[in-house]
Each structure stands twice: as structure tokens, then as C-alpha cells.
Design goal:
Blueprint: H1 2-52, H2 54-62, H3 78-81
Helix pairs in contact: 1-2
Length: 86
């Protein structure tokens, strides 16, 4: 009798888990769809804005990132800091 109760509870828990997983999958699909729609809309608006103001595109390359500063630490091979055998 106890085994039937445990089996029934296991089946109930499994059914609830499957239902929650399906619901979560639907939410994930909706979220993914929203993300790609937003990316599409952003790209479309950016291209529309660049057509309205073509001078801003010409100024963009002039405002390139500055050259990176070379690191102050140089490469030191491990053999140079290895202790010498005495």
C-alpha cells in the first residue's frame, strides 16, 4: 500500500515538473523572440538615423579610440628567475 502512495506521489511530482518545464520553455521562447525583435528594431532605427544624418557617420571614424598604452611590465622568462642549483 505504501509503495502505491509513493509511486502516486512520484507521478504527481513528475507531472508537475514536466508542466513547469513546458511553461518555462514557452517563456524562454517568448523572451528569445523579443530579444531578436529588439535587435532587428535597433539595427533598423540605427540605419534610419544614419540616413537622416550622414555627417555623423563621417565624424565617427575621426573619433577613433586612442592607441592603447604599452604595458609597463615586460616579459620575464621563468628561467631568469629560477633559483640556481648550489
Amino acid at each position: 500500500m505504501v509503495t502505491w502512495v509513493v509511486a502516486g506521489l512520484g507521478l504527481l511530482v513528475a507531472t508537475i515538473a514536466v508542466a513547469l518545464a513546458r511553461r518555462l520553455a514557452r517563456r524562454l521562447d517568448a523572451l528569445t523572440q523579443s530579444y531578436w525583435e529588439l535587435r532587428y528594431e535597433y539595427t533598423r532605427l540605427r540605419s534610419w538615423l544614419s540616413r537622416l544624418d550622414p555627417e555623423s557617420d563621417a565624424a565617427a571614424p575621426a573619433q577613433a579610440e586612442p592607441e592603447p598604452v604599452p604595458p609597463s611590465v615586460t616579459f620575464v622568462p621563468l628561467s631568469a628567475i629560477r633559483k640556481k642549483d648550489k
